[in-house]
Automatic annotation (TrEMBL):
It comes from Microtetraspora malaysiensis. It comes from the Bacteria. It is a multi-pass membrane protein. PROSITE patterns: MFS (PS50850). SUPFAM superfamilies: MFS general substrate transporter. The lineage of its organism: Bacteria, Bacillati, Actinomycetota, Actinomycetes, Streptosporangiales. InterPro entries: MFS, MFS_dom, MFS_trans_sf. Keywords: Membrane, Transmembrane, Transmembrane helix, Transport. This is MFS transporter.
Amino acid sequence: MTSRLRSLSLALAYFLVLLDTTVLTIALPDIRATLGGSLAGQQWAVNGYTVAFAASLLVGGAVADRYGAARVFRVGVAAFGLLSALCAPAPALGALVALRALLGVAGALCLGGSLGLIAQLHPRPQERARAMGVWAAMTGSALALGPILGGLLVDVGGWRATFLINPPLAALGLLGARGVVSPRGLRRIDWAVQASACAFLASLAQAVTGRSPLLGVVAAAALVAFVAVERRSQAPALPGGLLRAAWPELVAGAVANFAFSGALFVLTLTLQEGRHLAPVAAGLAFLPLTLPMTVNPLLTGRLVARYGARAPITGGLVLLAAGLAGAARTDLLGPSLVVTGLGLSFCFPALLAGVVAAAPPGTAGTAGGAVNAARQVGATLGVAVLGGFGDPLLVAAGLAAVTAVVYAAGSARARAAAG
């Protein structure tokens, strides 16, 4: 199997991991009708996955760097397929949330392994940037196609059908790592650091979702514990050189996913409960978002290989802000979603390529885990927070616009300080 075909297979495996961050959103009304639960319960049907996924991404990258990317990738993909098969017959909302949390852990292992394998298969920066473009095209398609596939599957077999497409995709993804051997690394893993990171994210998400001041205090305490343990650790979750070089990308990734996932959640409920669209019709309404996120990352990969990541990230954030502002202030949802999709398709591939390129040797999995952890933190908070605003899309647009300015100013300084 050629390296290009292997990269495509690796991207296919992660396609299904990211598909599960959005495919269930369109099925929320059907889940509520079948399993019951409040709005907060619906949010946790989504966040049960994204919280565990985000909290485990750092350790997933570290495990891949320590034990070998190919081995960790295979374990993660196989577990993802098995757990998906168990989610389909879940008898209660609590069981579904718990299984979705385990699914998030498996997805984090899959991501850490896949990014490590791409770095291994494409050691030259220009080739790696192009491979990231292919990878991002597949994963961007997953984010955008989630609502469409979700709507089709819910119409055919209810929300349970959304999990049955994962095991076959997992089997195909495993072909990408067949015969590949990755060397073990020397990087240690500090489990106390990882546990404190998980505690912080979980308590923060629940505090925001449940509007609980007590859990807000718990989240603050968990953050203090994480910082304290991280600073004393001989094997920190975020190596200092990586954090100094990549903090603008981490912030940009968090904000981009905050805006995207929060807007997707709000629009889905608006289309189904406000405009009374059927699930498949609501899913198809997101089709203008899909094409740019499927095709444009290939161009973005070439741009990053030639000019670097800064311009595509900045431009992507500006387009994201413009698209969300259009959706908030006009009735032209289709054109606004096209602009939003273009912004995301410039931003996401460049974020990954830029962070992996800046990573110290032997930490590609950790670097990928860091940027994707930031993205998933943003996604979790976006779903939890934006629903509480009177004009959530405009809030998301304003945040993306401010972040574009901050990123443009901060990225050059961060590179100079790190180099």
